[in-house]
């Protein structure tokens, strides 16, 4: 029962990721694409957490934590790049 | 008894997070310009990632018992991290987008332009 509900919500997250991927491909400016990439990455984090609950192994949640950290650094780097500054100054 | 309560709370939070994620993605598709789309992205990040990760923490302890406590604590840590850092990255991108002069369609008044910054 709970497995079926989890697979159903997994499908909801995959629909959301697909809709955001359209905005990432089409989006007219660079900040639009970056915003859609944020939504996609945090949705992917939740998908990994749900798969970790279904499969019962604790390895995927570590990868999901490092994925969230990596996308935070990537968003800051792109913001610095769009302002024309170098990181580390 | 505690296990059933954890299962009900976790399932409710995960399904609520899926619905909020779809709502945020539809807003991301339909809204006219970047500074309006930030609202939809906030719904989709805070409501669609932090809430279901807390639900995943409840569910993992409820289903697997003592074996799932690593997954539970990891999901709680990830939720706290996203709750702290998603506004920071969103604000950084919005600040640099305001300096890039990208199109702002339903704009009525710009105080930042008035100040000359």
Automatic annotation (TrEMBL), chain A:
It is found in: Cell membrane. GO terms for molecular function: sodium:proton antiporter activity. Signal peptide: none annotated. Keywords: Cell membrane, Membrane, Transmembrane, Transmembrane helix, Transport. Pfam families: MrpF_PhaF. PANTHER family: NA(+)/H(+) ANTIPORTER SUBUNIT F1 (PTHR34702), NA(+)_H(+) ANTIPORTER SUBUNIT F (PTHR34702:SF1). This is Cation:proton antiporter.
TrEMBL record, chain B:
It comes from the Archaea. Keywords: Membrane, Transmembrane, Transmembrane helix. The chain crosses the membrane at residues 6-29, 41-63, 69-94. The keyword Cytoplasm does not apply. One of its GO terms (molecular function) is sodium:proton antiporter activity. InterPro entries: PhaG_MnhG_YufB. Pfam families: PhaG_MnhG_YufB. The keyword Signal does not apply. This is Na(+) H(+) antiporter subunit G.
């Amino acid at each position: 029962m709970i497995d079926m509900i989890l697979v159903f919500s997994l499908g909801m997250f995959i629909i959301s990721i697909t809709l955001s991927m359209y905005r990432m491909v089409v989006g007219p400016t660079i900040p639009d694409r970056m915003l859609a990439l944020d939504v996609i990455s945090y949705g992917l984090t939740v998908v990994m957490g749900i798969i970790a609950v279904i499969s019962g192994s604790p390895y995927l949640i570590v990868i999901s934590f490092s994925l969230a950290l990596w996308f935070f650094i990537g968003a800051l780097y792109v913001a610095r790049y769009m302002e024309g500054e170098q990181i580390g100054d | 008894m505690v296990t059933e309560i954890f299962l009900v709370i976790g399932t409710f939070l995960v399904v609520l997070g899926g619905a909020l994620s779809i709502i945020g993605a539809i807003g991301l598709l339909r809204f006219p310009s970047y500074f309006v789309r930030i609202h939809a992205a906030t719904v989709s990040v805070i409501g669609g990632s932090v809430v279901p990760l807390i639900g995943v923490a409840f569910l993992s302890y409820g289903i697997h018992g003592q074996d799932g406590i690593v997954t539970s604590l990891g999901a709680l840590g990830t939720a706290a991290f996203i709750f702290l850092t998603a506004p920071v990255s969103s604000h950084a991108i919005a600040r640099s987008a305001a300096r890039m002069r990208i199109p702002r369609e339903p704009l009525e008044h710009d105080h930042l332009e008035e100040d000359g910054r």
